[in-house]
Amino acid sequence: MLAGRVRDANGPWIAERLGELGIDVTQILLVGDRPDQMASALRFLAASGVDLVVTSGGLGPTADDLTAAVVADMTGRPLELDEHMEKVVGDIIAKFADRLRWDADALAEANRKQALVPRGATAIRPAGTAPGLAVPPGDGFAPTVLVLPGPPREVRAMWDDALASGPVRAVLERTAPFAETHLRLFGVPESDIAATLRTVGEHTDLGPLEITTCLRDFTLEVDLRRRPDDAAALAAHDAVVAEIDARHGRAVFSRTGETIDEIVFRLLQGRTIATAESCTGGLLAGRLTAPAGASGHVQGGIVSYSNEAKEHLLGVGHDLLEAHGAVSPEAVHAMAGGALERFGVDVAVAISGVAGPGGGTAEKPVGYVCFSVRTADGREITRDPVLPGERGDVRERSVVLAMHLVRRLLTEG
Amino acid sequence: MLAGRVRDANGPWIAERLGELGIDVTQILLVGDRPDQMASALRFLAASGVDLVVTSGGLGPTADDLTAAVVADMTGRPLELDEHMEKVVGDIIAKFADRLRWDADALAEANRKQALVPRGATAIRPAGTAPGLAVPPGDGFAPTVLVLPGPPREVRAMWDDALASGPVRAVLERTAPFAETHLRLFGVPESDIAATLRTVGEHTDLGPLEITTCLRDFTLEVDLRRRPDDAAALAAHDAVVAEIDARHGRAVFSRTGETIDEIVFRLLQGRTIATAESCTGGLLAGRLTAPAGASGHVQGGIVSYSNEAKEHLLGVGHDLLEAHGAVSPEAVHAMAGGALERFGVDVAVAISGVAGPGGGTAEKPVGYVCFSVRTADGREITRDPVLPGERGDVRERSVVLAMHLVRRLLTEG
């Protein structure tokens, strides 16, 4: 991977999948794409005693993509042309080349390179154009190496085949899946959970339980992981869950790791929804329409960034905007009403706020955001918190908060 | 950092900043948050001969956040309470606690822990609640260590102070910034650039030039980096740029690293814009409104996810939709016209496509997306490509392509 130029979208995902299988992931390394850097990283990992190394990236057509060669060298397995895989890759590439009119010579060269397989390794059918490799230990190099391409979509698509390959199966047979609980909380700071865990630790040994807390997408994720046959770990698990329920029960919205997006999608089945957004500029509509099947309930939305748009497209009264301002509980109430009516939906969500960095006043500072979620049958939730963070934070946090308000209104009703 | 649970948003950013200062970043490590894992990683990096280690994360209030203690131990510098920093952190925390009604005891404990500084190190004023640390070498541990908190926003906010600290300045004085060229291309596959670079390599020695190519946000980034006083590197640089211009000149939209978002923002000064989105569900409007100051030109948008919304909110004719379908050049032309008229803007962008996974037909497969960019004075660009990838890819790629079409119409006009 090109050090410093690429966000690592694969490491955490792979680590999570391996964790579910009972494999303890001890390190994630991002290294430069020079052969010596890669070799040095592999030697470091082998010396730390790991059973399995998963690499991603470095299988592409550019000359600096050398992962397969480095792994072949490290395990003393010469690269050999896999003719079946050459044909598989060739067929895939031919389709691309035809459709996109790419340079055929460059593609043919890439083709040959990508069908080279270390002797004794298993090639994994590509999802893009690059096959993966499952390489058994060899030449004093003890870990099994699973070599995957860089694009996250390909890693995900090839994952099941990779696990089914002989060399990886041999590693998996030596472990058992963890038992896991995935609590998701909204609106609780990490420091409160830390205090809760300290309290539990005063009377219960938490040692045998692996607890990770992580703030992601403004959601506090508390993951509990234990060996399934460990009674002390189970006792610790139950004590932690009981204390979190006692102190933060109202904030727990998922006990299965189900995301707020999945919950809202589920709640919207058989209903229709529309949005009216100002400061979030369409991000809430974008998020609601992200999952396949969203067209079953999302009718649309209006991004009323200007006051004129709020008046003309959502029917918000000019006098109301003059009296209360575009960022006010009154304005979002009217915006949501406009969306209910214009789209003829069951549920409407309106957001208007001061995202910053400019536009804040003493009374309505940067981060002040008003929310209204209304149903066609007359129920409503309104909120107007001051959200922390900079412009991007305020916008993204507003979207997440709006999702939770939709959840609340639809589960209470 | 919690291995496997967190996407590394800091490593690449920090590596890029250091690279600009002439520091060659050789490795990015993500390690678990156990002290022995962290210590092992620090020893590995020291053994590889680096001058500077930057850590992020592990400064939070939870008991597993131990970076400062590990670095103190490694450099033989006992932790001491920095009373000035204790007061700074205390004041910050008091404000949060007051506003958000968090548990004051938990916060006070966090406060004390976060004001502990290894002897001889420089504390860096926090952007959130956790100060950073610049720790000079010590006790046989040769690298300087810069310890930063985990949240990307805080890393960015504290970066200038961190560079100005004595220990980091001492490292920076030993290097000189690289000369860099940042080409940005849209619509060229990485394999074509690879072929172009191979051609140049046949007659010019590219060894002294560092070339990284990276596909990010559907944009091909070609970064050329060289020591400023190296004549051979300059010759290689000029040869590469000339060949890319000759072969892919039309695709080059930036030579300074300026992003498509920055270019469109600049072009929209003194104009107004609105959107009409179907398959992208508001993501284009969300992207246009991301930068501060967007309200100067973005009037708003309509997410017409359903056909009813296309008719009623954008005035697309029922007969037109019947005759050509909602995904057609005719439909987006009418949608853009509706947005021009409804919002009274200078420029309107309409997108309608088959994002998938369902809904594709032989004639209009998944990935078929229609675009219309129109100006109030009658100019227009229409496109209807079949975009590769899955639902999320198609949506995001459509947004980027729309940004480029806006750029093209506004630079040609």
Automatic annotation (TrEMBL), chains A, B:
<dbReference type="InterPro" id="IPR001453">
    <property type="entry name" value="MoaB/Mog_dom"/>
</dbReference>
<protein>
    <recommendedName>
        <fullName>CinA-like protein</fullName>
    </recommendedName>
</protein>
<dbReference type="Pfam" id="PF02464">
    <property type="entry name" value="CinA"/>
</dbReference>
<dbReference type="Pfam" id="PF00994">
    <property type="entry name" value="MoCF_biosynth"/>
</dbReference>
<dbReference type="InterPro" id="IPR036425">
    <property type="entry name" value="MoaB/Mog-like_dom_sf"/>
</dbReference>
<dbReference type="InterPro" id="IPR050101">
    <property type="entry name" value="CinA"/>
</dbReference>
<feature type="domain" description="MoaB/Mog">
    <location>
        <begin position="2"/>
        <end position="170"/>
    </location>
</feature>
<dbReference type="InterPro" id="IPR036653">
    <property type="entry name" value="CinA-like_C"/>
</dbReference>
<comment type="similarity">
    <text>Belongs to the CinA family.</text>
</comment>
<dbReference type="InterPro" id="IPR008136">
    <property type="entry name" value="CinA_C"/>
</dbReference>
<dbReference type="InterPro" id="IPR008135">
    <property type="entry name" value="Competence-induced_CinA"/>
</dbReference>
